[in-house]
Amino acid sequence: MKIVTIVGARPQFIKAAPVSRAIQKHNLEGADPQIKEIIVHTGQHYDDAMSAVFFRDLDIPNPHLNLDVGSGPHGWQTAQMLMRIEEVLMAQKPDMVLVYGDTNSTLAGALAAVKLHIPLAHVEAGLRSFNREMPEEHNRVVSDHLSSLLFCPTQTAVNNLARERITKGVHCVGDVMYDSVLFNIHLAEKRLHILKKYNLKPKSYALATVHRAENTDDPERLKSILNALEEITSNDLPVILPLHPRTRKKIGEFNPSHNSLGLVDPVSYLDMLLLEKQAKVILTDSGGVQKEAYWFKVPCVTLRNETEWLETVESGWNVIVGYESMSIIKAVEQAQSGSIHQNAYGDGLAAEEIVNIASSVNLSDP
Fold first, then answer.
1. Percent of the chain with pLDDT over 70
2. Active-site pick, 138, 211, 244, 258
3. Any catalytic annotation for residue 211?
4. In the chain, is it the N or the C terminus that has fewer CB atoms within a 10 Å radius of its CB?
5. Span 153-165, pLDDT tens digits
6. Whether the Cβ atoms of residue 355 and residue 36 lie closer than 8 Å to each other
7. CATH number of 2-175+346-360, picked from 3.90.10.10, 3.40.50.300, 3.40.50.2000, 1.10.3210.10
8. Which of 184, 147, 170, 176 is nearest to 20 (CA)?
9. 185-334: in CATH 3.40.50.2000
10. SS in 3 state form for 317-345?
């Protein structure tokens, strides 16, 4: 059995790594059928952190092919990836195409697969923000409706698909990101230098991340968030903010003065996990960071108007506040541990479940 995995950004490599390890385990155990995985990197995001060290430290297989598409407008980028992925699929003739999440790489991989009548499997299926202004929402909805296998991280995701009349091929397997966090936090805790580097004491600082276009591309929103972070710092809770390149660029364009903030360069995935686990509170517009805060039992303040990860909110560990300064400051002042912590994201074995299902299902059935 041959599977082509399509990924295009660092978070997707991190999600795909547990599945690749599960495939290797499947093959070493002599399971039938043996699975050959071809990993294709679209090159959607160029990331300096994705060096040989990144792949080695996280035990992530290097991609077999890099399509070097690069950045560009959504339509151009998706079209370029679609054309190049189609060429790969025609040459490789896989039995299945596997895509992750909600990027343009996800959409391009899905479209290329179905146009060549190759069964498609989507990991993180069924997520919905119900905000159609987000490009990611269109990517995930279209990919779900094209997929033969839909691997959902939660029951909420299964219910979302059912409302769209998608029930066939749907499997609630848990969250591969939880698999990844369990695997990597042990590696991260061997590398305590990030706390020493920034003179941080456990549970005595706030960690912030801001990268979504809705926040970075709107001067008033970005200034409002930064003003809130500065006020939090002045209230004796230091804020460390690893700057996404988009955010650093926009801060430079808008030229706000926020000298008291702990603005730092992007950090590695392992360092980020450690910063998250040891933070007193996390402020973020990242879906992945919301979940990681939940798994580490750290209160989270989400700088958006909605979230795909409703379980973190329902449990009391996450609060949605948007971008208004006073709402953010108040949420941090009131941040406390949630009252419930029943992990709604599986048992850390999602990747093995995905491989078991993918290797046993007969996708030729009508």
1. 94
2. 211
3. yes
4. C
5. 999 999 999 999 9
6. no
7. 3.40.50.2000
8. 176
9. yes
10. CEEECCCCHHHHHHHHHHCCCCCCCCCCC
